[in-house]
Amino acid sequence: MTKVLFLCTANSARSLMAEAIFRQFAGDDFEVASAGTEPTKPEPGALAALEHLGVETDGLHSKALADIDLNSFDYVISLCDRARTECQALCGDQHFIAWDFPDPVTSKKADAFKKTAHELSERIKMLLLILRKKSDRPQLFDAPHEFFKIMADPLRLKMILMLQHHGELCVCQFVDATGMSQPKVSRHLAQLREYGLLADRKDQRWVYYRINPALQDWMATMIKTTAAYHASLIPQQVKDVDNGCV
Fold first, then answer.
1. Cα dist. 56→6, 20, 59, 183 in Å?
2. Domain HTH arsR-type, which positions (predicted)?
């Protein structure tokens, strides 16, 4: 059974919501918990946001990291910079994943808790797809050096940077912008998806690709930084799928 632990400072909102959402979506092959470096108590807004999503909240309570056996977890996921700083060094052979979600408790926006719950839900769904995937290829979550191998290929790098700039693109848009053949583009997209770097969705005739929102923060930051410093590698105009893209 794969065991996942979510961490933040107070274990009152972000990590607690992540625990509940993960438990709702995961099957019997997973065990999930959450904890905080300075736990308080569940925020009413967090519980209300979970109930709005249809996620069970029974039994949710804030827990102290000091009472958790980190060595018993396969994956440890921090949800704020403070938890990342305080906890990453404590993790041994576990796969440490750093996500950074704004704290809805300190937000002035009325829908902050609902927005956080929704974004956690989307990212956790993608995480579960990766963790459940059976493949002989190394996964990015298990072998970070594979990320740099992927980025080292000029075509794959351009495609990744295009997605960073444009958000979502389909195969024909990559073909038009790169000048590469459709089979070659499709093969590279399939590899990127299999490694867990890309996610996709189908909309009528088109399959759209995007950067996997469940990537570790350092990977997402590396992509954003590369795109910012090497904008010349990114085709700024792409063909509209409604205007001749087939």
1. 17, 7, 9, 45
2. 136-235
Q: State how far the Cα of 53 lies from the Cα of 243, in Å rounded to an integer.
A: 37
Which candidate, 81, 82, 99, 89, places its Cα nearest to that of 4?
A: 99
Give me the domain span that covers residue 40.
2-132
Q: What are phi and psi of 228, to 5 degrees?
A: -70, -35
Containing H/E element for 163?
A: helix 154-166
Torsion sign, CA atoms 78, 80, 86, 89: positive
- Would you give per-residue pLDDT tens digits along the chain (246 residues)? 889 999 998 999 999 999 999 999 997 889 999 999 899 999 999 999 999 999 999 999 999 988 988 888 988 898 887 767 766 666 655 577 888 889 999 999 999 999 999 999 988 988 888 787 755 556 666 677 888 888 889 989 999 999 999 989 988 889 888 888 888 988 999 888 888 889 888 877 788 999 988 887 788 889 999 999 988 888 877 777 665 454
Are residues 116 and 150 both part of a single domain? Answer: no
What are residue 202's phi and psi, to 5 degrees?
-105, 135
Positions marked active-site: 8, 80, 87
Global pTM value: 0.71
Q: Which CATH number characterizes residue 30's domain?
A: 3.40.50.2300
